[in-house]
User: Fold these one by one.
Assistant:
Number 1:
Amino acid sequence: GQQLNQSPQSMFIQEGEDVSMNCTSSSIFNTWLWYKQDPGEGPVLLIALYKAGELTSNGRLTAQFGITRKDSFLNISASIPSDVGIYFCAGQLWGRNDMRFGAGTRLTVKP
Amino acid sequence: DSGVTQTPKHLITATGQRVTLRCSPRSGDLSVYWYQQSLDQGLQFLIQYYNGEERAKGNILERFSAQQFPDLHSELNLSSLELGDSALYFCASSPQGRGNTEAFFGQGTRLTVV
């Protein structure tokens, strides 16, 4: 119900390739956030989405809030080695206060 | 630097003990969230406070408790510690308790129970 299903679990790509990951749920979300976490560090906010259909870019990153409010995707274009890390989606359920996280996508970029 | 400060950075303690983790939110943020992250796992939501009051509760054990003080800093108390409580504990803060909000994370406290 309130679970966030994030996929893929891990990705191994070549430098320069594009990357796509997504989060889905059976519940409606008010907000979608995308974070990146480096080992031993706290997650860093990449993109925040607030409206259904919203498409937002941050440099080489693009994220969209799904029309149904139940999903979101994150694309990374022309990946570079420093993109390595774990990417988490997070969502705030409609009518609730807390923020739930997906299980993460572990990205490895080969030079 | 996110502006969220967590202390201590590392903590090693024995089973059965009690510890307190501290979080200072970003200036002006009223909402504080606590999360637990076990090795190679996702972030499990524990509890949220907004302006001193509990707002939402997640998978928080009865042995754990939290509070937010008038100056808006928060503490997470973990008691009767077990080996399985070893994890990274993160605090995040945001301006609002509900609605459009962006949460910023601290560097975490790494708790090791031996």
Note: DSSP finds no helices and eleven strands in chain A.
Number 2:
Amino acid sequence: DGGITQSPKYLFRKEGQNVTLSCEQNLNHDAMYWYRQDPGQGLRLIYYSQIVNDFQKGDIAEGYSVSREKKESFPLTVTSAQKNPTAFYLCASSSTGGAGSPLHFGNGTRLTVT
Amino acid sequence: GENVEQHPSTLSVQEGDSAVIKCTYSDSASNYFPWYKQELGKGPQLIIDIRSNVGEKKDQRIAVTLNKTAKHFSLHITETQPEDSAVYFCAAYTNAGKSTFGDGTTLTVKP
């Protein structure tokens, strides 16, 4: 089955530690995205990548970093600089990065930092 | 930048009734409007979408209408069923591929 795999489903970290969230897709999509979801709020874009070895900041990139070394993979690192990292993180992909290309989402990683 | 407002934030209906969720957007350049359904603990899934050259689109019990002049679009679910209970998100895209999401509507369908 084609889709997006996010792992792990739940992640717990101590404050001050960096943590990397995994996202893999086998849809052969060019574009990949990371969103953050907080209770009662919409999805806010952290980073996106329209092609391998290239990525752009979204609306809330501070305290996060990404890499896109392979088409299939787009890991997100939540650094200790992110002031409020506890959230639900969603990875998505689309066939192209243009308008009219719907997003396919993974099932998310819930990160808790204490 | 684009701003998308979604109403209501919560909606409760009786099974078999209709449900309507409305979104307004600010950027007249937006030309693609998808709707996503998110069940508890899962990622959102596309349920229907509409492009700016179309006024209405229907897929079985789900329909979306778009009024470009007024910059609003709506999701209509008829004959609601308990499995329609979820959080629904609208989004608006510009040609640059940048999407902006509404804050979501929690729909509860009571049996």
Note: The two ends of chain B are 41 Å apart (CA to CA).
